[in-house]
Amino acid sequence: MVGGVVTLEARIRAGVGAFEIDVELAVAAGELVAVLGPNGAGKTSLLRVLAGLIPLRAGRVALDGAVLEDPAEGIRVASERRPVGLVFQDYLLFPHLSVLENVAFGLRARGMARPAAIAEAGRWLDRVGLPAEGDRKPASLSGGQAQRVALARVLAGNPALLLLDEPMAALDASAKAEFRRDLRRHLESFRGVRLLVTHDPLEAMAMADRLVVLENGRVLQFGTPADVTQHPRSRYVADLVGVNLFRGRASNDLITLAEGGSLTAPGAGDGDVFAVVHPRTVALYRTRPDGTPRNVWEGRAVDLDLQGDRVRVQVAGSPAIVAEITPAAVRELGLDRGERVWISV
Q: What is the C-alpha to C-alpha distance for residues 85 and 34, in angstroms, rounded to an integer?
């Protein structure tokens, strides 16, 4: 049960067959960490280890100071006794139970009396926007509705650790956008530790405080979205998070950015927004470009990284941004580290 400040500290060595996971994590309450990686990187296996579905070979998992597993000390708390909630991408609702009974199931399993569990399940269905669906069976729900029921079932148990395994992967585009908004709202009110596995870098960068990038069961990179985006440590990471993501507030087509500077974006609306700029749409000049382009500012090239047929140029400025240009363009500009440049988006 969540109560006060909760932290997750995990040193994990585990495996499924010949595949081994070797990961160290420290996550604080209120922090959302997104786990990214290619297929077969060990993302889902990591969540299953934390949930107690795969045993540790070595290491230690502690939640709020309470040890859930430590093979060296002979400690292993069974999965059903861990204060952990796991939301699967394919819902895993009980087909023979009603929606209301599905949400109440975990509460009943923990010993809550049926009337109280049903009442609490009803309150959670209200919170996820499904107050009238309690009597339906899961097969009659849309994908978005089913995932809301799965989320309600987990959150109703008030876990200290919430694990989300690609919860939007099975949804179509319209349902995904709506569910993402709802999920962000529920996660903001969740007081425990949150881990989200996703294959979508934009989803991860838009929602997460920090990113963990896994490859072959190992942590390849760990840091804030800005850190990972601006300092990719492999071609996979560069391709994965090869976009500029800015947070800001829009008003009358002008986005005032949290990190300084602004961008003009017709149709941005009003309120808090994310602005995504692909590095290949960023143009660099040695002098201010002619004409009246909307988004132009001056900066300084701080790093140039040749990756295949493109050069990623990290530019300090207000805001800082990453551009991708050709090696020929680098030569034509006479561009090097420390050079002043003009940026146009």
A: 16
Structure tokens that stand for 148 in this block? 């809301």
Q: Alpha-carbon distance 187 to 133, whole Å?
A: 22
Whole-angstrom distance, CA of residue 60 vs CA of residue 21: 13
The letter for the amino acid at 244 is: N
What does residue 264 show for φ and ψ, rounded to 5 degrees?
Answer: -95, 125
How far apart, in whole angstroms, are the C-alpha atoms of residue 201 and residue 191? 24
Query: Hey, what are 68's tokens?
Result: 């859930």
What's CA 75's distance to the chain center, in Å?
30
Integer CA distances (angstroms), 194 to 2, 197, 198, 295, in order: 12, 10, 13, 36
pLDDT exceeds cutoff 80 at 293? no
Segment 96-127, tens digit of pLDDT: 999 999 999 989 988 899 999 999 999 999 99
β-pair type (193-197, 32-36): parallel
- Residue 142's contacts (CB-CB under 8 Å, 6 or more residues apart) are 175
Residue 110 vs residues 83, 92, 122, 151, 184: alpha-carbon distances, Å: 11, 19, 17, 17, 27
Question: Beta strand pairing status for 244-251 and 271-277?
Answer: antiparallel
Confidence at residue 3, expressed as pLDDT on a 0 to 100 scale? 43
181-226: pLDDT as tens digits = 788 888 888 888 999 998 887 778 778 899 999 999 999 889 988 7
DSSP 106-119: HHHHTT--HHHHHH
CA 221 to chain centre: 14
Local structure of residue 299 (DSSP, 8 states): E
Structure tokens of 138?
């899961």
C-alpha span between 23 and 10 (Å, rounded): 8
pLDDT at 1: 40
What distance in Å separates the CA atoms of residue 184 and residue 200, rounded to the nearest whole number?
Answer: 15
pTM for the model stands at 0.72
CA distance 61 to 72: 12
Instruction: Say which DSSP state 334 is in.
Output: T
Which residues does 267 contact at the CB level (< 8 Å), separation at least 6? 253
Task: Give me the pLDDT at residue 309, please.
Answer: 85
